[in-house]
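Renewal narrative, Specific Aim 1. Our central claim is that a sequence can be written position by position from structural information alone. The example that follows is taken directly from our test logs and has not been curated for this report. It begins with the structure tokens describing the chain, in the order in which they were read.
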């Protein structure tokens, strides 16, 4: 910080220094060999249990059961992705995937993600966000929102270069 009347180089004061590394979430892996990798924290175990039970519900009641899980745990990313999978039409699925995607972005930022770096499928806690993003891409393509579908697809491959269409199509867990 340069003070009025000084001629020397700008010097940062302690009050304007960069954030301490300890302020960053421990869920971000800073590596000299590549971009940082973010792993989301696990969901609430009770909500995970409720979601598992909802997914075992008979098909005609499954969507409502997953919706009930979200009413109690609206931050649960996997539940948003599953609700998107169970949508009654394209727009309902699109809306659920979009909510899961945006809640996932919020969680990533809270975990130290700064807009770039890996968020890989290999970590189960990242899967709800990635499923939502993949679903959003598919639904955007179905409604003719081709630019959004392409952006989502590109973002998926930037987050996880090993992303596969089998995962996007729900053929892999």
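The sequence written for that structure reads:
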């Amino acid at each position: 910080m340069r003070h009025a009347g000084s001629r020397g180089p700008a010097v940062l004061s302690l009050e304007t220094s960069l954030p301490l590394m300890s302020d960053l979430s421990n869920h971000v892996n800073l590596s000299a060999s590549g971009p940082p990798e973010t792993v989301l924290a696990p969901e609430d175990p009770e909500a995970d249990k409720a979601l598992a039970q909802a997914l075992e519900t008979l098909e005609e009641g499954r969507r409502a059961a997953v919706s009930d899980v979200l009413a109690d745990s609206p931050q649960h990313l996997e539940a948003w992705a599953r609700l998107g999978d169970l949508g009654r039409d394209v727009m309902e699925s699109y809306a659920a995937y979009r909510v899961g995607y945006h809640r996932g972005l919020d969680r990533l930022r809270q975990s130290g993600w700064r807009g770039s770096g890996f968020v890989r499928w290999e970590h189960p806690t990242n899967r709800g966000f990635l499923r939502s993003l993949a679903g959003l891409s598919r639904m955007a393509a179905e409604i003719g929102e081709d630019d959004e579908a392409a952006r989502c697809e590109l973002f998926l491959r930037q987050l996880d270069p090993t992303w596969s269409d089998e995962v996007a199509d729900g053929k892999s867990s």
